[in-house]
Amino acid sequence: MSVFSEYKDCIAEGDLVLVWISRDNIKPIKVDSNEVFNTRYGSFPHEMMIGKPYGSQIAIRTKGTNKFAFIHVLQPTPELWTLSLPHRTQIVYTPDSSYIMERLNCSPRTRAVEAGTGSGSFSHAFARTVGHLYSYEFHQPRYEEALREFKEHGLVDIDKNVTITHRDVCRDGFRIRNGDVTSHLFGENETEVAVGADVVFLDLPAPWDAIPHLEDVISKDEKVGLCCFSPCIEQVDKTIEVLNRYGWSDLQMVEIQGKQFESRRQMVRTLDDAIERLRDVKRRKNEGLERRKRMCDSLLNDQPEADETVEKRPITEKTKFNPFGKGARVKEGDANYKWKQVTKVEPEIKSHTSYLTFAFKVANQIRNEEAIQRILESSESK
Ligand SMILES: C[S@@+](CC[C@H](N)C(=O)[O-])C[C@H]1O[C@@H](n2cnc3c(N)ncnc32)[C@H](O)[C@@H]1O
């Protein structure tokens, strides 16, 4: 089982743990009782984590103060891995990968093809959901790094559901034959892997060069779904042209814009408030002018300012509160004021805005007369 799909209660020596320091700072570590995890808030010996339930908060006293520093030790999931993995390339984030897998109907019976592997962000999400993932990467160091990582995470090897192949798919296609540089372990008489993919995901600069090669590895008996992830509309245009040429249909382009909506209350401001605000500005301006004049006079006459002569505005509820944001602050929802419910948008959800081009193909479109007859007969008998 992969550490990403097997649930464990407690942390043990050698586990991959994702340390949550803050929302934007999650770090993967391999638990080693001789090691220490250093943060700018303090050092956490791995030993403190061993035996603790996943999700625990670990606290240490910070050096020279009476304060505590905290981390949370979390079990890896593809979503958290995407937020913490070492970036070797641009990556696909969860708002995109989850939408793509849903649109392509990914399930444990899916056989997916993915190119390129890149930093393996999407590969981890695919690996948890699909029956088998065939991932391709042409950059040698990136291929080796992804292979090492997939092995460490229990995604490749016998009985595991990921195969990674070192390949330029635009030039050499997707077939995996005995002798290729791949993680697939060939059986004695096996010469080629029967890929039979029903899902294809292309995150490549030139997907149009890879699309013609897909014919060799996609399923001929099932509906095949494809998604191309491209940051430029010109790439989408070129991709669509080639998809049409190679018999893909139901083309649709989608862009995911991840936004976080927060529900807030906003004070209702009336026309009277606006008028009162303008009066207040004028009053304060006059007061300021008068004060400045008195200061100049006292400087010229070399006399201290007679502070007690300054007219003070009486402190009332009105002077304390300014409905346009200045003056005393009012707590959101204060029952003395009128409020309306509004939505505030937080723009900082991590996602890499690319265009998602979806297409589908049924290679073998021969009518199965027997099956049709059976359906007709069963509907007639009802
Ligand atoms: C943007 S990254 C993919 C990121 C990946 N989807 C993820 O979520 O981590 C694109 C990768 O495709 C690889 N690549 C580009 N052209 C390729 C080709 N013709 N064949 C195989 N891999 C290719 C690049 O080396 C790069 O690692």
UniProtKB/TrEMBL annotation:
PROSITE patterns tied to this protein: SAM_TRM61
Principal EC category: transferase
Molecular function terms, GO-annotated: tRNA (adenine(58)-N1)-methyltransferase activity
First and last residue of the signal peptide: none
Binding site for S-adenosyl-L-methionine: E137, D168, D203
Primary location: nucleus
Family label: Belongs to the class I-like SAM-binding methyltransferase superfamily. TRM61 family.
Protein name, entry field: tRNA (adenine(58)-N(1))-methyltransferase catalytic subunit TRM61
Organism: Torulaspora globosa
Lineage: Eukaryota, Fungi, Dikarya, Ascomycota, Saccharomycotina
